């Protein structure tokens, strides 16, 4: 049995230790906002927070998340910063197909948490792990610049 | 047929009311077809003659609650189509945008065939173009009927009433909301004609509007096919023969069946599927299989062989797709000739949501939940595979996690139904990224061979253009017309924006056989634009002329193309000198009913690092529905094309696709993505397509800029083939 905290809820789960966190979250807990894109940590669609840090859940064994706080896109808006990022995404009309945007928002929120006013280079470095096939990158950059994380933190 | 050729008086509306239809319902039609299925339904509702024509059909329904629903055959896949469609209806119906919602049409080829493509599809940058006239007319007709109903109730002249924000206002200050008028309006005769607003009267169209589908895409609530849960459902995943056309020979599934969570191992003609309680268990099960393939006749094919065959084909004559003037005389009498060969590789679509489909097959019915650009084809393949009649197959269309043409094909739907047919529970088929990339239907590898005739004064007389490659059209619809010409492949090439005394376009069909081909964002116009815009650029340089001036002098018949070329050049500071190692490249084309020009400014380092400093586009897409969507589509479409131009090429070794995931089929990342400056030319022309235009222009602009900066004329994409790589920073 693995003890897993997801979005503040404790779960006792009978899953293999090496099952990636992504599939525990999606297929066992039914939280489908976190997406599958590549399975090898190349696209970032599966990004969640582990104790506030962005991680690629498709390659993270669930055992590595045991006893730590997992936050997914479904709950990121509960923090002031997460909600600000979501609003900035809408204000800047970032979204096209939307499939990668859960991961983008998780990465952006983690970036802004540690760097409240990132430079363009810091935005690029913090977001380089997240692919967008619709290529909404210019708007992602603008949305992140627009978040006043100092006020939210 | 342009909308203006097709006035209101020639179009018919279906009109219906009552509980069955839920308010005032109007359906739009283009002439020339008879809709048997719906004719019967609506005749039963008492409102339709049996001669109603059919074609592009979207329903507009005004409910008793005053809310408006549009049933649209054009799906939302991130391009903003549904928002634009809602704006068109809201504009003429005089309701707030927030009271309009758009639903996907169910599969019905009779009802929802696209007027141009002749089948129910979202693609070809048609969603705005083909909705524009009929949906505005439907909105205006509904408004007129609602006003007439109110006027009758008040005993006043309808001309004294007006509609605003979903309410009819009378001359003495009377007010009636639409919802209270829909029954009366449904009983009124349809107007002979309606007058549509002029652009000066628009309050919504042409003004930025927030997308309707995005709020749930930032909080995890939006459900794509991959997210669906159907009661009793298990996940399925497949291992398909690595060689196209190969078959499954034998499989030992004993170890796979021992994997916790695995339920069944299902064999198909060319694949094995494992079903399980979750995707991870499916993958564990697939890895535990011992599979033997009958690789088939393509197992020995490498890219080199396909390349050689295509190159050889490109010198043949094939069939003549277009001939004007006398190209043979022009070439033989020319003071000089110039030949160049341009090459574009096989490409994968690789949308971020891999191919996925939920399917359930029971004895008497089949149900599909799938994001598809072609719901009627999905229904047909499900019927064929399940052996059920068409009307026993239900298709629930879903949000699409990227398509770029991939979901115009339904191979994965066929496979899902074949699996579901063998089990007694619904399955959600999810392809791994590796399955998705190695079993795509690829954008063909093309070779364009152009030969220009130049007279003694250096004037361009014309050119011969040979286009060699696989026919996507033939693969998709089964055959080519008798002429043997693939109309998609030669589009733009047979009608360039340049005035040429002689032009001949030959189409040489060369099928690679070992690799299936399909539509890819930009389709034929993208391929032609790369060849033409690189060639014209080379001709300009040979003539010692500025590439902008050289083009403008040949574009007299196309003032809209001239205007976007000038605007893009001006905004990109075309005349401002650059340092050594830097260069600008430009491309312009008339594609998908729009006119677009793109300028790339870049710097090439000694180590072949390419720093893109500016990307500037100008577009004239006629009347703009939602400027936000136009900007977003040009930005994204341009970078989508840049990604492929820089990095992507699918290759075969021993019949197997060598690229399997984003580590070896890499994509542009944010740290490599330049900004995109987009300028929209104000226009009152009919709307043009937008979604594929940016993608079509970036390749040639990039290659021309590279030549200007480095002197190296690359004629084959991607740039990475020649050792170039992107470097970030302005």
TrEMBL record, chain A:
Q: Keywords assigned by UniProt? A: 2Fe-2S, Iron, Iron-sulfur, Metal-binding, Oxidoreductase
Task: Give the matching CDD domains.
Answer: fer2
Entry keyword annotation includes Zinc = no
Q: Which Gene3D superfamilies does the entry mention?
A: 3.10.20.30, [2Fe-2S]-binding domain (1.10.150.120)
Which InterPro entries does its entry note?
Answer: 2Fe-2S-bd, 2Fe-2S-bd_dom_sf, 2Fe-2S_ferredoxin-like_sf, 2Fe-2S_ferredoxin-type, 2Fe2S_fd_BS, Beta-grasp_dom_sf, Diverse_Oxidoreductases
Q: Does the keyword NADP apply?
A: no
Superkingdom is Bacteria
Residues annotated as domain 2Fe-2S ferredoxin-type: 1-76
Spell out the molecular function terms from Gene Ontology.
2 iron, 2 sulfur cluster binding; metal ion binding; oxidoreductase activity
* Any matching Pfam family: Fer2
Identification of the protein by name: (2Fe-2S)-binding protein
Organism name: Pseudomonas abyssi
TrEMBL record, chain B:
The protein's matches in PROSITE patterns, at most eight in alphabetical order, are given as: TAT
List the SUPFAM superfamilies hit by this protein, alphabetically. Molybdenum cofactor-binding domain (SSF56003)
SMART domains, alphabetically?
Ald_Xan_dh_C (SM01008)
Identify the residues that the record assigns to the Aldehyde oxidase/xanthine dehydrogenase a/b hammerhead domain, covering every copy.
Answer: 219-297
Keyword terms of this UniProt record = Signal
Xref: InterPro entries: Ald_Oxase/Xan_DH_a/b, AldOxase/xan_DH_MoCoBD1, AldOxase/xan_DH_MoCoBD2, AldOxase/xan_DH_Mopterin-bd_sf, N-heterocyclic_Hydroxylase, OxRdtase_Mopterin-bd_su_IorB, TAT_signal, TAT_signal_bac_arc
**Molecular function (GO) terms listed?**
oxidoreductase activity
- Keyword Cell membrane applies: no
Name assigned to this protein: Aldehyde dehydrogenase
Q: Which source organism does the UniProt entry give?
A: Pseudomonas abyssi
Which lineage?
Answer: Bacteria, Pseudomonadati, Pseudomonadota, Gammaproteobacteria, Pseudomonadales
């Amino acid at each position: 049995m693995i003890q897993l905290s997801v979005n503040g809820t404790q779960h006792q789960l009978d899953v293999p230790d090496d099952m990636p966190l992504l599939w525990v979250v999606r297929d066992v807990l039914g939280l489908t906002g976190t997406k599958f894109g590549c399975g090898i940590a190349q696209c970032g669609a599966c990004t969640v927070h582990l104790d506030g840090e962005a991680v690629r859940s498709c390659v993270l064994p669930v055992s590595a998340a045991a006893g730590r706080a997992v936050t997914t896109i479904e709950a990121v808006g509960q923090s002031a910063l997460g909600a600000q990022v979501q609003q900035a995404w809408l204000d800047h009309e970032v979204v096209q197909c939307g499939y990668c945007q859960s991961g983008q928002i998780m990465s952006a929120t983690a970036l802004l948490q540690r760097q409240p006013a990132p430079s363009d280079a810091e935005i690029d470095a913090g977001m380089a792990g997240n692919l967008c096939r619709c290529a909404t990158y210019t708007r992602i950059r603008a949305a992140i610049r627009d978040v006043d994380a100092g006020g939210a933190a | 047929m342009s909308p203006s050729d097709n006035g209101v008086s020639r179009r018919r509306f279906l009109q219906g009311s009552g509980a069955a239809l839920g308010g005032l319902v109007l359906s739009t039609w283009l002439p020339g077809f008879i809709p048997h299925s719906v004719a019967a339904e609506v005749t039963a509702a008492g409102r339709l003659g049996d001669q109603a024509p059919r074609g592009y059909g979207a329903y507009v329904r005004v409910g008793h609650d005053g809310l408006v629903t549009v049933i649209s055959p054009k799906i939302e896949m991130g391009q903003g189509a549904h928002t634009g469609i809602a704006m068109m209806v809201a504009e003429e119906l005089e309701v707030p945008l927030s009271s309009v919602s758009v639903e996907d049409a169910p599969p019905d080829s009779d009802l929802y065939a696209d007027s141009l493509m002749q089948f129910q599809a979202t693609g070809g940058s048609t969603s705005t173009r083909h909705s524009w006239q009929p949906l505005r007319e439907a909105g205006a007709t509904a408004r007129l009927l609602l006003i007439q109903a109110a006027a009758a109730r008040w005993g006043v002249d309808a001309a004294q009433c007006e509609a605003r924000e979903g309410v009819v206002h009378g001359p003495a200050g009377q007010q009636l909301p639409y919802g209270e008028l829909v029954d009366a309006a449904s009983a009124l005769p349809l107007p002979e004609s309606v007058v549509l607003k002029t652009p000066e009267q628009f309050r919504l169209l042409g003004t930025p509007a927030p997308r309707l589908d995005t709020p749930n895409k930032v909080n995890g609530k939006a459900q794509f096919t991959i997210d669906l849960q159907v009661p009793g459902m298990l996940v399925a995943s497949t291992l398909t023969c690595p060689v196209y056309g190969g078959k499954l020979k034998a499989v030992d599934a004993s170890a796979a069946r021992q994997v916790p969570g695995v339920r069944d191992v299902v064999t198909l003609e060319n694949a094995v599927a494992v079903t399980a309680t979750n995707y991870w268990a499916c993958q564990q099960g697939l890895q535990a299989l011992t599979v033997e393939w009958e690789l088939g006749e393509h197992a020995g094919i490498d890219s080199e062989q396909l390349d050689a065959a295509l190159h050889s084909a490109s010198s043949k004559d094939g069939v003549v797709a277009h001939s004007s003037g006398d190209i043979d005389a022009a070439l033989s009498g020319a003071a000089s000739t110039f030949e160049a060969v341009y090459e574009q590789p096989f490409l994968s679509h690789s949308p971020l949501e891999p191919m996925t489909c939920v399917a359930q097959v029971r004895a008497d019915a089949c149900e599909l939940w799938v994001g598809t650009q072609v719901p009627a084809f999905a229904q047909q393949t499900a019927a064929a595979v399940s052996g059920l009649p068409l009307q026993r197959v239900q298709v629930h269309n879903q949000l699409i996690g990227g398509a770029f043409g991939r979901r115009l094909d339904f191979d994965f739907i066929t496979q899902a139904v074949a699996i579901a047919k063998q089990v007694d529970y619904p399955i959600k088929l999810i392809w791994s990224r590796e399955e998705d990339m190695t079993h795509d239907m690829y954008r063909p590898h093309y070779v364009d061979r152009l030969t220009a005739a130049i007279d003694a004064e250096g004037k361009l007389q014309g050119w011969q253009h040979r286009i060699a490659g696989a026919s996507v059209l033939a693969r998709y619809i089964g055959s080519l017309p008798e002429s043997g010409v693939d109309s998609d492949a030669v589009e733009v090439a047979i009608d360039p924006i340049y005035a040429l005394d002689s032009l001949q376009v030959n189409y040489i069909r060369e099928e690679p056989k070992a690799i299936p081909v399909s539509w890819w964002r930009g389709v034929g116009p993208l391929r032609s634009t790369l060849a033409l815009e690189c060639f014209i650029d080379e001709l300009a340089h040979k003539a010692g002329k500025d590439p902008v001036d050289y083009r403008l002098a040949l574009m007299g018949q196309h003032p809209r193309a001239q205007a976007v070329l000038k605007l893009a050049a001006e905004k990109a500071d075309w005349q401002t000198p650059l340092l050594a190692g830097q260069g600008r490249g430009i491309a312009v084309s008339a594609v998908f009913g729009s006119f677009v020009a793109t300028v790339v400014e870049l710097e090439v380092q000694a180590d072949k690092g390419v720093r893109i400093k500016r990307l500037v586009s100008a577009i004239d897409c006629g009347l703009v529905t939602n400027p936000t969507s136009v900007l977003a589509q040009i930005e994204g479409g341009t970078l989508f094309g840049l990604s492929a131009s820089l990095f992507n090429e699918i290759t075969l070794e021993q019949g197997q696709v060598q690229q399997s995931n984003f580590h070896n089929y890499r994509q542009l990342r944010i740290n490599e993505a330049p900004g995109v400056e987009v300028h929209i030319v104000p226009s009152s022309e009919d709307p043009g397509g937008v979604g594929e235009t940016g993608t079509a222009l970036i390749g040639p602009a990039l290659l021309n800029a590279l030549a200007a900066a480095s002197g190296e004329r690359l004629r084959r994409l991607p740039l990475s083939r020649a050792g170039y790589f992107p470097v970030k920073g302005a």
